[in-house]
Specification:
Length: 338
């Protein structure tokens, strides 16, 4: 089977994507697949036939996640178009493309829409569902309409007047992941600087009621709800740096909560997954307040597959190793191709 593992891109989560892609490629090669790893934005040499896949070539080096989010450089800004030369040609040759990408142009459904037009089979959710999940305001509206509890929020644009904002609150870019540009605001004096930070990454910002309590995440693989994971921080919150560059975080699987609450959270996770129209695999994030009330924060249509990512840890808790997770994702995509 010929597989393209597509990674990189030009979003603020580029480094996370490269890390996910590198590990996925390695896992699929170890499983015996003819997989090649490609950066979606980088030019490839002329490709004439499928013998390329037999080489199982890695077109990029191993990638480490930097301490700060990726910022577009001059070469990316000057580039016309998104796909590197011949990248789409190689994707058309593949039996399936594993989209190992995060952030803009991947989790928002754009790349999926292109693949749909070309009839390219790919992993993860479709274009429409990906777009719904990526837009946090739209996702939250759908949650509310379907009785999935979520924190109250408002959305503002760069030129909107900011008045009567509730605090404490969480300020986050409307589209994006890895907690990039996210801050917790405890008083109004912090608000202006927090908005300025968030607007660096998106033209619209979500301001959400701060929920004090415990943080959880629920992975879903082929509609199978994985064991819940709890994220505990010694200090601060689960931001970009703490996700990838600190030992001050504990990720506990299965989460130490009672069976009734675990069933409630799992049921809500699957409901959110269905409401958004997600498929193949995803991760749904929750907060639980001091009274045991659950709040669905957001859905991730292309969860991270890095050494510290949550969904692989949840799968491992029930004996599904990383390579087997990758294989199941590929098999689902092939079995459900349009």
């Amino acid at each position: 089977m010929n597989i393209v593992v597509l990674t990189g891109g030009n979003s603020s989560e580029r480094d996370v994507s490269l890390s996910s892609g590198t590990l996925i490629h390695k896992a699929l090669v170890e499983k015996g697949y003819q997989a090649i790893l490609i950066d979606v934005c980088e030019d490839l040499p002329v490709i004439e036939n499928k013998t390329l896949f037999e080489s199982r070539k890695n077109f990029i080096g191993d990638a480490a996640i930097t301490a700060k989010p990726f910022i577009l450089n001059e070469s990316h800004l000057a580039k016309k178009g998104y796909f590197g030369q011949h990248v789409l040609d190689v994707c058309k040759m593949a039996d399936v493309v594993f989209i190992a990408m995060h952030g803009a142009n991947a989790e928002d459904g754009k790349i999926q829409a292109v693949f749909d037009l070309y009839g390219i089979t790919y992993t993860g959710s479709g274009a429409f569902a990906s777009g719904l999940a990526m837009d946090k305001a739209v996702a939250k509206q759908l949650f509310r309409q379907n009785n999935i509890p979520t924190a109250k929020s408002i959305t503002i644009s760069k030129h909107d007047k900011v008045e009567d904002i509730f605090v404490p609150c969480v300020v986050k870019p409307l589209n994006g992941g890895s907690s990039i540009g996210v801050t917790i605001v405890n008083d109004h004096a912090q608000l202006e600087e927090s908005l300025k930070e968030a607007f660096l990454f998106c033209d619209q910002v979500l301001i959400e009621d701060y929920i004090s309590g415990r943080e959880f995440s629920v992975g879903i693989l082929d509609r199978d709800v994985l064991p819940i994971i709890e994220i505990r921080m010694e200090e601060g919150f689960y931001d970009y740096f703490n996700k990838y560059h600190t030992e001050k975080v504990s990720e506990i699987t299965p989460a130490p909560i009672n069976e009734k609450k675990a069933k409630e959270m799992s049921k809500l996770a699957l409901k959110a997954y269905d409401v958004l129209g997600l498929k193949n695999y995803a991760r749904i994030d929750f907060m639980m307040d001091e009274n045991g009330n659950l709040y669905c924060l957001e859905a991730n249509s292309l969860p991270g597959m890095t050494p510290s990512s949550l969904l692989p840890q949840e799968a491992q808790a029930i004996g599904i190793d990383f390579a087997s997770v990758c294989e199941r994702i590929v098999r689902y995509a092939l079995d459900h191709r349009i």
